[in-house]
Amino acid sequence: MHIFIQAIPNLLTLLNLFFGFLSVMYSAQGDYRNAAILILIGMMLDSMDGRIARMLQVESELGKELDSLADIVTFGVAPAMMAYYSYFSQFGLIGMGMAGLFPLFGAYRLARFNINAIQSSLKYFTGVPITAGGGLLTLLTLFQGKMPEIILPIAFFVICFLMVSTLKIPSLKEIPLPKYGIIVTIFLATAIYFVIKKEPQRFPYFIYVAIPLYIAFISYQLVKTKRKRNQ
């Protein structure tokens, strides 16, 4: 039983990696919507595996290394493939080289984080995490038809730079997982899937509502945590 409990976080991480692989396959077929859905679900799994490992007290070096390997596929290679097939492919070999920069910068970011993990602060990240960078690139690629074409390549290279920069990015590690948060996350993932699958035209409006609500929730949690610390 204990061995099974130890394996739960790693199974979530492997599922994250598998979704990243499937996303690459969908991008190669030109199905960017499903490719994006898989990356976004991968982001949810990535936010869960570490929390569950700490909750079950089964954190391990294997899990940490496995998490980095999954991240480079799901949030490095998969978004880069989306960007390549939907935009950079028009530039031939040069486009391949440009798209390949994203997982290279992301791999460097992950390696730097791993060797500095002990010294890392809970309050901030050094450089944009690859999960956030890959998620942002995914959304920009998915909706590039609704934006000026120049935005995607500019954002692509800006995100690459931010990942390897020494900028201090606020961390959300200290924000506690809400009660039943895992169930809520799974429910939201299912809801997003059906919104996109059944009524894709409504998805942009869903994003316009969901993002402000998410930012408001995070802000509330930050203020609440700060007040508790000052008491």
Automatic annotation (TrEMBL):
Recorded catalytic activity of this chain's protein: a CDP-1,2-diacyl-sn-glycerol + L-serine = a 1,2-diacyl-sn-glycero-3-phospho-L-serine + CMP + H(+)
PANTHER family for this protein: CDP-DIACYLGLYCEROL--GLYCEROL-3-PHOSPHATE 3-PHOSPHATIDYLTRANSFERASE-RELATED, CDP-DIACYLGLYCEROL--SERINE O-PHOSPHATIDYLTRANSFERASE
Any GO BP annotation: phospholipid biosynthetic process
Highest taxon above the source species: Bacteria
Cellular location(s): Endomembrane system
Enzyme class of the recorded protein, top EC level: transferase
Family: Belongs to the CDP-alcohol phosphatidyltransferase class-I family.
UniProt GO molecular function: CDP-diacylglycerol-serine O-phosphatidyltransferase activity
Topological type in the membrane: Multi-pass membrane protein
Listed name of the protein: CDP-diacylglycerol--serine O-phosphatidyltransferase
Keywords: Lipid biosynthesis, Lipid metabolism, Membrane, Phospholipid biosynthesis, Phospholipid metabolism, Transferase, Transmembrane, Transmembrane helix
Alphabetical list of PROSITE patterns matching this protein: CDP_ALCOHOL_P_TRANSF
Keyword Kinase: no
Organism of derivation: Neobacillus thermocopriae
Gene Ontology CC: endomembrane system; membrane
E.C. numbers: 2.7.8.8
TM regions (residue ranges): 7-26, 93-110, 122-144, 150-167, 179-196, 202-223
